[in-house]
């Protein structure tokens, strides 16, 4: 894996004649997890897709740059909303899909090791239809981690998981994502408080920053400062006109 660059997203997004968000400037530190929260419809998912170069509908006026000056193409792994698993491939085949699409021989031992860490070894030969929603989401996360890219974009990666499994997967993801540049969209204030080296809220009026807890990521669920930040984030999201 190459060194993980910092990113700068600076500009305004429009869909047709309507402004979706911006002008804004979002700086994403290299090798760190940046969490982005905000109400539905303000453009969080669109922002991820713009960074990934996958949005063909939105017009973005500005720049999306890596700190090393190199193109981002080929250096990004994206976990989109919804598992997006191929129904005709089994779990192992879905996790190793990226290499096959590139015409490469997949590293199946590594894929199996990631599945084991995810608690999915017993399901490796199953098709997606035989899995629960939470299991499918874990498979999608495993596929994203399998890509081993320096820049990782996560869109609600743990939303379908129960509370206990979600905390376990947050811990596992933080371990696997260490040293990568991560932009994670989440609606969960507790998740942002646990995992964010930086935390931002995107609203209709712009971008706001919230000071993260001082403890190392992933933070303990019972850490008092983490709980306090979670509370401030929840209060801010419930009252869009108030300061965080």
CATH fold title of the domain at 7-75 and 149-238: Rossmann fold
Order of helical and strand elements: EEEHEEHHHHEHEHEEH
Helix- and strand-based class?
alpha/beta
Terminal Cα separation, in Å?
A: 37 Å
| CATH class wording of the domain at 7-75 and 149-238 | Alpha Beta
Percent strand: 15-25%
Oligomer: single chain
Percent helix: 25-40%
What sort of overall outline do the alpha carbons produce when their principal axes are compared?
globular
> Main sheet?
6 strands, mixed
Can you summarize this structure?
With about 240 residues, the chain is of the alpha/beta class. About 30% of the residues lie in helices and about 25% in strands.
Task: Explain what this protein looks like in three dimensions.
This protein is an alpha/beta fold. The strands form two sheets. A six-stranded mixed beta sheet has the order 5-6-7-3-8-9, with helices on both faces. The chain has a domain at 7-75 and 149-238: Rossmann fold, CATH 3.40.50.300. The protein has helices at 44-52, 91-95, 97-101, 108-117, 133-146, 163-176, 189-195, 224-238, and strands at 7-15, 18-28, 33-37, 59-66, 76-79, 151-155, 181-185, 198-203, 206-210. Helix 4 (108-117) crosses helix 5 and helix 7 (189-195) packs across helix 8.
List keywords for this structure.
alpha/beta, 24% strand, 244 residues, globular, Rossmann fold, 9 strands, three-stranded antiparallel beta sheet
Task: Present the secondary structure layout.
Elements: E1 7-15, E2 18-28, E3 33-37, H1 44-52, E4 59-66, E5 76-79, H2 91-95, H3 97-101, H4 108-117, H5 133-146, E6 151-155, H6 163-176, E7 181-185, H7 189-195, E8 198-203, E9 206-210, H8 224-238
Parallel strand pairs: 3-7, 3-8, 5-6, 6-7
Antiparallel strand pairs: 1-2, 1-4, 8-9
Helix pairs in contact: 4-5, 7-8
